[in-house]
What does this fold into?
Amino acid sequence: MPRELSAATETFVARLDRVPLNSFHWRLLILSGLGWMFDAMDVLMLSFLLAPIRSEFKLEPAGVGLIASATFVGMFIGAAAAGRLADRYGRRAVFTVTLVVFSIGSALSALAPTFETLLAARVIAGLGLGGELPVVATLVSELSPRAQRGRMIVLLESFWAYGTILAGIVAITVVANFGWRWGFAVGALPALYVAYLRRALPESPRFLAERGRAPEADAVVRRVERAGGGALLTLAPAVPPTRAGRTRLADLVSPRYARRTAMLWILWFGVVLTYYGIFLWIPSILAARGLSEVRSNEFFFLSTLAQVPGYFSAAWLVERWGRKPTLVAYLLGTAGSAFMFGNAGTGSDAFAWAALLSFFNLGAWGVVYTYTPELYPTSVRATGAGVAAAVGRVGGIIGPYLTPVLVPAIATNGTFALFMGLLVITAGAVALLGEETRGRSLEEIAPEAEAA
It folds into this structure.
C-alpha cells in the first residue's frame, strides 16, 4: 500500500503492522511460547528416555527407533491437518485444541503398559505437537508488527531451547530418581493449564478479515493499539484489506507458489531429518564412546545451553541481515559442527562441537519458523506452513530410525558426514530458491508470487 495514504484510508492490518511492541505482544509471545516449551520438553525427553525404555521392554535398536518415529507419524498427520483446519476455522481454536491433544498423549505415554500402547500414545502426542507448532507460528506472525515480525518468531522458537533445558533438568532429577514414566507425566498437566490460559488470546485479525468478519478483526486491532498506548488510533474507520478469496490445497504447487513451496519442502525435510537424526542420539553415541549413561546425559544437557545464545543471535540477525542470509549461514554452521562432532571423542572437543551444533541448528530453526508463514497469503498461510512442516515430519520419521542403522554400517563419523552433506544441500536450496522478506508486510509478500 502506498505510504502516502492517510490513516482514514489505511487498512486495519496496516495499522496493526506499525503498532509498537507492547504488553499485548509479550503476553501473546509468552502464552504461545510456553506451549512450545512443553512440546520441546516432550520431544527432547526421548533423548534421555530411550535407554531406560529399551531396557524395560527389552527392545532391539530398530524398536527403539520406532518410539521416536511414532511421535513423528503423529506430527506428520497433525501438521497437515491442523494447518488446513486453522485456515478454515481459525488459528486460535486449533492451537488450543492441539495442546490439549498433546497433553493427553503425554499422559498416556506415562501410563503405557506395553510397547505397543506406548507407540500409540506417542502418535497421539505427535498429533498435538505437529499441529501446534505451525499454527502458533502463523498466529504470532499475523499479530506481530512488520518491523519486529521475524524477531518475534525467533523469540517464540527460543522457547524450544527452554524446553530442551527443562527436559535435561527433569532427566537428571525426576527420571533419575523415579523412572522414565515420570518424564512424560511431568509435562502433561502444565501444558493443559497453558491451553486454559490461551483462551484469553484473540483470533488473528487477518484471518477474520479474510473470512469477511471485518468488524471483529478491527476490534482486535483496536485492542492491540490500546495496549500500545494508541487510543486515538481507534478513531480510524475499519478499512479491511483485500481478500484473497477461496483457495485450495493444490494452490501450494500452482505456478504462483511452486518455487516457494519447493524451497520450503526441501528446507523442512533437511532440517527435521538431520535435527532428530542427530540430537535424539547424542547421549547414546556418547555412551557408546565410553561415557556412563548419567555422564552422557549431563554432557548433552550442558551442550544444549548453547541453544539460547543461538536463538538470540538469530533473532538479532534476522531483522538486520534478513531471513535468507541468516538461515544459510546457520545451516552451514550446523553442517560444519556436525562433521566435527562425528569425528570427535568424548572430551572438550566433543563438548565444544556439540555446543556449536546446538547454537547453529536451533538458530536456524528460529528462522525456518519465521520464514515459512511469510511466503503464503492469509487464506492458505496456515495450510502452507502445516504442509511444509508435515513434509519435514517425513524426515522426522526417517531420522531417528536411520541413525542406529547407519552407525553400525558406516560408523559415527560417516553418519555425521552424511548429515553434513544433507545440510549443505538444504542451504543451497535456500540460497538458490529463497527470497528475502525482511521489512515487508505479509500483504506485500504474497502478491509477488501472484505476479511471478
